[in-house]
Amino acid sequence: MPNSFQPEASHFIGGAYVEDTAGAPIEVIYPHTGEVIATVHAATPEMVDRALEAAKTAQVDWAAMTGTERGRVLRRAAEIMRARNRALSEIETHDTGKPLSETLVADAASGADALEYFGGLAGTLTGEHIPLADGDFVYTRREALGVCVGIGAWNYPIQIASWKAAPAMACGNAMVFKPSEMTPLSALQLAEILMEAGAPAGLFNVVQGRGDVGGALVTDERVAKVSLTGSVPTGRKVYAAAAEGIRHVTMELGGKSPILVFDDADLENAVSAAINGNFYSTGQICSNGTRVFVQEGLYERFVNRVAERMDGAVIGDPMDETTTIGPMVSGRQRDIVAGYIAKGAEEGARLVKGGKVIEGAGFYIEPTLFADVTDEMAIAREEIFGPVMSVLKFASEDEGIARANATGFGLAAGVFTNDLTRAHRVSAAFEAGTCYINAYNLTPVEAPFGGVKLSGVGRENSKAAIEHYSQIKTVYVGMNDTEAPF
Ligand SMILES: NC(=O)c1ccc[n+]([C@@H]2O[C@H](COP(=O)([O-])OP(=O)(O)OC[C@H]3O[C@@H](n4cnc5c(N)ncnc54)[C@H](O)[C@@H]3O)[C@@H](O)[C@H]2O)c1
């Protein structure tokens, strides 16, 4: 068993690794081999309490620093993260099974972007001055919320941790982060990096555990804000639990996003986007465009071309840098996907390519293409979170938009067309938080990211995230005598 992935201890609290073996063990499985590569322990109530207390204490002095000083720490952390990109990517590949060809460019690299971006923004955060009658005025102070809780999903562990921690810390908050129990390793690395970059002990803490540990964090009275990345069912629970204490929330939840490909689209670009938007990270991406609506005139050519291009997928050892499709994160997730594939075939979709579980120790399944999918089929309605593309046929623009929006989700949407006005008209009509024109699934830190409808509330990345990690205090200044009726 490779033991280089065993962390020094399960949790990172108050600036140091902390172990408490009284918590239930959680095995970390390498999805390529099914081997246990590390074991951590779920946080006991005592660990949760210590982490929240450490965050509460650290937050006071951190918020008193200038934004420029806070930003310096974040930008230093970004540099350390970039310098360690390969080691962090190898951890992420072993934790998630995602190929190294991806983790080298999309995980810690994106986390570093967030630290750098919000590090740069920290010094610019200000309130405003509002002049009133007779010399009175109001000024506003942009203040931190306090202790924030971050809860992560397993598909982009260090990216999710960084996307939450960076804006939180830029605004003067402290954080307790709970990674997904499937992928507990890399958030500990982020905690180490932040300490090395000069963050005070207790500013960013990591506790391990399952939903019960998440639940304990969400309802603690020391917590001002909860940011969750996860599924809609978990989102409902966490949002409701946070509401009890009137806590701020950001909910980054699931999706079933549409891509509309019109007859006049550039075929190769649309096919590339559909491949990226369904098979990158073996399909385990919230904003994937899993319902690909293709206009009648291009439909057969599109389906054939996707199938041809799928022959170029390199499935296998995720540590081999030529691999483009790794295993699913777990046997359970692979079985869920296999179940959807069986249902798709049963419900009459045309299986064009793939569809089979790849037998062996790892959790592999073939990238799968279904054509002739209809709106009522389970594969067109439910989030699969695996490498399954559904292609549906449409005729008119109005029909395409109506069907694209006929879902409870609203995370992302894409349109491929060379008609300039149609591209903008369709984007305006999409019920989605992020829309793409002749592109798909790019998430630069400068752009707001988040969902509408069941896909969530709040935005990550960009200046918009600042609104979700700070609050405005109004200070009214009287410059005149105070009048009273008696
Ligand atoms: N919108 C986004 O930015 C985004 C990004 C990645 C993944 N996702 C979504 O995440 C899902 C896949 O991730 P997952 O399977 O890890 O999600 P999940 O909902 O099962 O778990 C997410 C996290 O919530 C925790 N949790 C579970 N129950 C809880 C409770 N009652 N209280 C507090 N915390 C609790 C889990 O331990 C985990 O850390 C998909 O639906 C995907 O679309 C969304």
UniProtKB/TrEMBL annotation:
For this entry, list what GO says about its biological process: glycine betaine biosynthetic process from choline
EC number(s) on file = 1.2.1.8
The active site of this protein is located at: 252
- Pfam families recorded: Aldedh
Q: Which InterPro entries match?
A: Ald_DH/histidinol_DH, Ald_DH_C, Ald_DH_CS_CYS, Ald_DH_CS_GLU, Ald_DH_N, Aldehyde_DH_dom, BADH
Q: Which GO molecular function annotations are given, in alphabetical order?
A: betaine-aldehyde dehydrogenase (NAD+) activity; metal ion binding
Report which superkingdom the organism of origin falls in.
Answer: Bacteria
List keywords of the entry alphabetically: Metal-binding, NAD, Oxidation, Oxidoreductase, Potassium
The Aldehyde dehydrogenase domain extends over 18-475
What span is annotated as the signal peptide, if there is one? none
Q: PANTHER family under this entry?
A: ALDEHYDE DEHYDROGENASE-RELATED
Question: Belongs to which family?
Answer: Belongs to the aldehyde dehydrogenase family.
Name the chain's protein. Answer: Betaine-aldehyde dehydrogenase
Classification of source organism: Bacteria, Pseudomonadati, Pseudomonadota, Alphaproteobacteria, Rhodobacterales
